[in-house]
Each structure stands twice: as C-alpha cells, then as structure tokens.
C-alpha cells in the first residue's frame, strides 16, 4: 500500500533541481497510496578520486521524512541549503528513486521511511511496495553475519541482503553484475512486492523487479516517441544512444505527464537499466540463469487532465461530479441495438451459463458494488449467487468448486486479499472473472476473462465513481449472461433502456449538492449515523455508511431494514440521525412500515424517496426528505448512492478533515 517511483535521464542534461522536482511530483501523484512518510535518494557530487572512493559512483543523498509529501519537500530544501548542495549541478545521466509510505511494519518515522539502506555508505538502497513475509528469518540470519538493523521495517532486510550477496560474490568471484545481485536477493524473498534498487557500486543504473505488486516502466524518447513498437530484442529499445527518460512507477498516473509509452512488468521479471538500455530478464528460482524476454510497449490512453483537480477543491468532489461521464465511458461501445457486447466475456459466456453458481468476491466498496449487483444477476441469469468477503473466504477456506464462476471485484486490481482469494479459486479450478478499473493490473492478468469498468483514474482514497461504474459493469454482465432467456426479454429491454438514460439522471441528482451540504451542516455535531436499506438498496446503505465512516470519521452503520426489530431499534431516540432509503421498488411498502415504526419511537428520520413520494412515506411532515429521480429498480442504487457520497464529502469538509487522504487509510490495499 505504498507508492514507489524512479527517474533516470540518459544522454540528456538535467539539473539536480529538475531531478528533485520530477521525483517529488511522482510522489505527489502516488500519495493516495500512502501518506504517513516518504523519502528520496539521488546522487551527491563526487568528493573522492576513483581510487579513493569505496565504490564506482558518487555517494547517494538520502532524505527521509515523516508526514505528507510536502513535509519531505520542505525538509529536503532546508537540508540542501544547510549543506550547500548545488541544485544547479547538471547530470547527463542520473538515477533517482522515491517512495511514499503507508506504515505496516514500524510507526511512521524517518528511520522507518524508504529508501531503506544497506548500512554505512548506503551501498544499496531499496524502495518497496508490498510485504516480505519471511523478513524475520532473514533478519536473524543477517544479524548473525554482523549486520545491524536500524528500522522496524520488513524492507531493511532487502538492501542488507543485497550487500551480503555483493560482498560474498566479490570475495569468491571478484565481479558480480547488478542483476546477479538482485536475482540472488529475489531467490531468498517470500511475499508480494515490487522493488527498485539503486547502488553507487553500479552508478547510473536502476533495477526493478516484482512479484505480486504492480510496477510500470515508462519510456520517453526525447528524439521521437516509440509509439508502442516492440522490442525486437532485449536492448533494441535503447541501444541507439538517443536521449531519453525512463521511469518506474506503482501507477500509470505518475508517468502520464511524462510519456504515454509504458510496459507493465510481469511477475518475476527483472528490468535492468544500464547505459540507457533496457534489459528484461525472467527470474526462475529453479534455474541459475534467467531468460531474456522480449516485450512490447503499450500506449497509455489517459490524459494529464484526468489526474488534476481542475476547478474542484478535492479529488473526491471531482470524482463524484464526473459520474455522468464515467458511466457513459463504462457503457461506451457495449450497448448496441438492444444488445450488450462485452468482448472480455464473449468466449466464456456458455461456460458461465452452465455454472453451478456465481460467487462474488471483493472487499470494502467493491464488495458493496457486488452486493448491489447480486439481485439482478440472480434475476436475469437464474443462477444462484453467493457473496464472499475475500479475507473471510481465505480464513474459512470456504468451498469453491470447479463448476463455480468466481467473480472478483477490485477497483485497483491489486487488492491483496482479493488476489489471494483469486489464487485460491484458481487452485480449485473455478472459472475466474475480473471486474476492475485498472488495465494491466494483476487481477486483469490472472483471471480467465473479465470486464474493465473504464471509469478513469480515481485518486481520492474513498471510491465514488468506480463504485457506480462497477454496478453498471455487472449489470451489463448479467444482461450478457442472461441474453439467451426468452422469459426475461422484456425486463432486459427495460434495463438496457434504463442504462442508456442513466447518465442524464445522475446529472439530475447531482443538483442536490447544495441540499446535501445543508443536511451535512445539521449533522456536523452528531456522533453516529444509521442508514437502513433493503432489497436492491441494502448495498446502498452499507456503502453510504462506509463513505461517512471513511472520510468524515463519524461512526456510521449500514443496516438491513428487515433486521431493525432484532436489536438496532433499541438505539433509536430523538437525537440519533437515521437515513431510510425508501425509493420505489418491490420493498417500498415494507420500508413504509419501517418508517412508521421509527417515527413511533421519535426517531430523527431522513428519508430518501422517489420524487413525488414524500407524502406517501411520511404524511405528518416530521421527516426530512431527499427526493431522487426514479429509474429501473435494479439501477436505482446508482442514483441513490450519490446524495450519500455528497453528504459524506460535505460532512468531511465541515468537520475539517482531509477528504482525499483519510486518516489511516490508503487507496490500493496491497497487504493482508
């Protein structure tokens, strides 16, 4: 749940000041992945002659700081002034690395920040995203060999292990390459990780490798773009000596302002940048030597404007208001002449139709989106649907059968629990389908088939537009699977018609923004909030409460309205705000009954209802109403969640908390 970034300029002069800003901006783009500490490493000026120096390159300058990225920026420039570091010094070739952290091992502090070092002299520096599961064993071994550990992190074993391998190889063989060192380190590591190595023993070189965590290589040929041309051999990309910039990043959003040519590393690949050339090796723990790999660059379909706030104050606010566009993009090219066309599922539709059951698997917001989709997937396909929280499925080792279709839902496609559940389902022989927002993610590569939701880059930690796009993507999936059933033909046509007009209704409900801000101001001093829903909108209740919990830091709980009498009713009084979702569907009359029971206990009710239904749900005028436009009942959750997203946003702003970077949370959860 960290962000790693690296920048290497080759055969083009760049000042140290420029290099610093590229690294800082890379971290700013990745800050949503973790923001409790950060650090960078770049080269100092050479002070010793080559014969006196302990290594071939210039000594590294390493800066680490607790807190947000801007804390690091201020401390770096302050230290640069104190130590009189020349920011105008130019480098024709230079390699720098950077990291933003979400703490897993050790409290947020400079000593636990990355880059982590091999020790005195910083002979090897490493930035990591992920987790090393056998670090304690490695730490004990290295301690016995005389290494001293300064941090509480799992990462520190990696540079120290690299130095151990380097020293041992030098003693025995005399010469060892950077890639040989990294391969031997990988051979000892267990866990899921992405790593970038920098070492003054190998000046102006970078090595990156990954197993389980996303890592991107970006290439910017300054003499002309590559336009996605294949590597005809492992060095054909860069042996031409032309000026270029190369990047490593945890996410495409950090490189889009520099280049659109990228490569997503596969598991166990090692990318070695040396003398401006890129070598890609495939590591196999059972083989002594790696195989060279030929890969092609892809062209990024993203614009810089997507990663900027524009005229909005926060990314969450922007992403809420982008939903008419994001939903349009999710459906673009997929609804045609009353049919649903999902190329990613086409070859597997017959298998899915014959399956024993559909198992939806996800975490957090993605789980809620799948829960919202469950009723209409069952209705349109006639296939039983079960729900699994990924971590709980793993804890129970719940039954997954060869005849099952397991649908994995994840915005990032990198959620650790979801990926582990995917491995479990693959081992058990199930057909695995991915629903994700991230092209090239681990989820999209490991599943047999799937649907990209195409919601666009989502930077706010609390998911908004991805949630609604996930529901729509799964609605289209249900329509595609059930397209062979004559009995549901009329229902299918009504839903497809509803999907077509959905973005315009979302635009309409966004006009409630000012009303939700006023409602938020009336709730600002409340300590708790309950949200009741049922049927299609049980998931809406869970997701609305989660949003308030995540960003406004207010206790909130989404509940199944049918369970109200079995305990929650004891909480009801005139002070506790309760939102009841009572839009028109098959459960409408039951929700009317719930409202009457809550009113009889003097409940402080806020009722979400369809336009024109206020008098039907609460005739005595003692309720506050949120009136929303009515759409097809199975699509109503897309409309109903938006006022709750706006409420959570305004509550957070009014309470003075950070909207885009909630306390203790990060966007891409890559640890268990």
TrEMBL record:
Q: Which domain of life is it from?
A: Eukaryota
Keyword match Flavoprotein: no
PANTHER family linked to this entry:
GLUCOSAMINE--FRUCTOSE-6-PHOSPHATE AMINOTRANSFERASE, ISOMERIZING, GLUTAMINE--FRUCTOSE-6-PHOSPHATE TRANSAMINASE (ISOMERIZING)
| InterPro entries the UniProt entry points to | GATase_2_dom, GFAT, GFAT_N, GlmS/AgaS_SIS, GlmS/FrlB_SIS, Ntn_hydrolases_N, SIS_dom, SIS_dom_sf
Q: Does the keyword Transcription regulation apply?
A: no
Give the PROSITE patterns listed for this entry. GATASE_TYPE_2 (PS51278), SIS (PS51464)
Protein name in the entry: glutamine--fructose-6-phosphate transaminase (isomerizing)
Q: What EC number is given for this enzyme? A: 2.6.1.16
| Entry's Gene Ontology BP terms | fructose 6-phosphate metabolic process; protein N-linked glycosylation; UDP-N-acetylglucosamine metabolic process
Question: Which key words are in the record?
Answer: Aminotransferase, Glutamine amidotransferase, Repeat, Transferase
SUPFAM superfamilies in the record: N-terminal nucleophile aminohydrolases (Ntn hydrolases) (SSF56235), SIS domain (SSF53697)
Q: So, what pathway does this thing act in? A: Nucleotide-sugar biosynthesis; UDP-N-acetyl-alpha-D-glucosamine biosynthesis; alpha-D-glucosamine 6-phosphate from D-fructose 6-phosphate: step 1/1
Where is the Glutamine amidotransferase type-2 domain positioned along the sequence?
2-276
The reaction(s) annotated as catalysed by this protein in its Swiss-Prot or TrEMBL entry are: D-fructose 6-phosphate + L-glutamine = D-glucosamine 6-phosphate + L-glutamate
Domain SIS: from-to ranges: 348-488, 519-662
**Cross-referenced Gene3D superfamilies:** Glucose-6-phosphate isomerase like protein, domain 1, Glutamine Phosphoribosylpyrophosphate, subunit 1, domain 1
Q: GO: which molecular function terms?
A: carbohydrate derivative binding; glutamine-fructose-6-phosphate transaminase (isomerizing) activity
């Amino acid at each position: 749940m960290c962000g790693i970034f690296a920048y290497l300029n080759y055969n083009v002069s760049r000042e140290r000041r420029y290099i610093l800003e590229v690294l800082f901006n890379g971290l700013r783009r990745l800050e949503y992945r973790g923001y409790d500490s950060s650090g960078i490493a770049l080269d100092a000026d050479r002070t010793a002659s080559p014969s006196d120096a302990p290594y071939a390159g210039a000594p590294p300058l390493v800066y680490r700081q607790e807190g947000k990225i801007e804390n690091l920026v201020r401390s770096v420039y302050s230290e640069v002034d104190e130590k009189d570091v020349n920011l105008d010094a130019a480098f024709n070739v230079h390699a720098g690395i950077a990291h933003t952290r979400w703490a897993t091992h050790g409290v947020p502090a400079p000593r636990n920040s990355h880059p982590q070092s091999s020790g005195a002299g910083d002979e090897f520096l490493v930035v990591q995203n992920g987790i090393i599961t056998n670090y304690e064993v490695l730490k004990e071994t290295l301690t016995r060999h005389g290494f001293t550990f300064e941090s509480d992190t799992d990462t520190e074993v990696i540079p120290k292990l690299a130095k151990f391998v380097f020293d041992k190889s030098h003693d025995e063989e005399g010469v060892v390459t950077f890639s040989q060192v990294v391969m031997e380190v990988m051979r000892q590591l267990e866990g899921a990780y992405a790593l970038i190595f920098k070492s003054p023993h190998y000046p102006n070189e970078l090595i990156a490798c990954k197993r389980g965590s996303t890592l991107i290589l970006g290439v910017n040929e300054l003499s002309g773009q590559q336009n996605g041309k294949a590597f005809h051999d492992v060095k054909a990309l860069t042996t031409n000596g032309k000026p270029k910039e190369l990047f490593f990043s945890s996410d495409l959003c950090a490189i889009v302002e520099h280049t659109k040519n990228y490569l997503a590393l596969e598991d166990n690949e090692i990318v070695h940048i040396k003398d401006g050339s890129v070598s890609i090796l495939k590591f196999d723990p059972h083989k002594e030597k790696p195989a060279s790999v030929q890969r092609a660059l892809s062209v990024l379909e993203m614009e810089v404007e997507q990663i900027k706030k524009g005229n909005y104050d926060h990314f969450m606010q922007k992403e809420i208001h982008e939903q008419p566009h994001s939903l349009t993009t999710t459906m673009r090219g997929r609804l045609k002449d009353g049919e649903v066309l999902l190329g990613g599922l086409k070859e597997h539709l017959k298998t899915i139709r014959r399956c024993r059951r559909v198992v939806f698997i996800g975490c957090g917001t993605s789980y809620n989106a799948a829960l919202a989709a469950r009723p209409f997937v069952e209705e349109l396909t006639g296939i039983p649907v079960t729900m699994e929280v990924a971590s709980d499925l793993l804890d129970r080792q719940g039954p997954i059968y060869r005849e099952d279709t397991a649908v994995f839902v994840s915005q990032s496609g990198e959620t650790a629990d979801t990926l582990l559940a995917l491995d479990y389902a693959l081992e058990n022989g199930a057909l695995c389908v991915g629903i994700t927002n991230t092209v090239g993610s681990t989820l999209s590569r490991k599943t047999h088939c799937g649907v990209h939701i195409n919601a666009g880059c989502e930077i706010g930690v609390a998911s908004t537009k991805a949630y609604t796009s996930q529901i729509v993507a799964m609605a289209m999936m249900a329509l595609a699977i059930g397209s062979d059933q004559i009995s549901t033909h009329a229902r299918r046509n009504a839903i497809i018609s509803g999907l077509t007009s959905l973005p315009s209704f979302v635009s309409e409900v966004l006009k409630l923004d000012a009303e939700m801000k006023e409602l938020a101001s009336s709730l600002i001093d409340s300590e708790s909030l309950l949200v009741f829903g049922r049927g299609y909108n049980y998931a809406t209740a869970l997701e609305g409460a989660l949003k308030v919990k995540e960003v406004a830091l207010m206790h909130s709980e989404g509940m199944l309205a049918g369970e109200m009498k079995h305990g929650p009713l004891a909480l009801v009084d005139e002070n506790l705000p309760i939102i009841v979702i009572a839009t028109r569907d098959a459960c409408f009359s039951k929700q009317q009954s719930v409202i009457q029971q809550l009113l009889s206990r003097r409940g402080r009710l806020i009722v979400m209802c369809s336009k024109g239904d206020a008098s039907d749900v609460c005739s005595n005028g003692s309720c506050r109403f949120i009136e929303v436009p009515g759409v097809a009942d199975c699509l109503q959750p897309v409309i109903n969640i938006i006022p709750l997203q706006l409420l959570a946003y305004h509550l957070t702003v009014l309470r003075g908390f950070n909207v885009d970077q909630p306390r203790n949370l990060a966007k891409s959860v890559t640890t268990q």
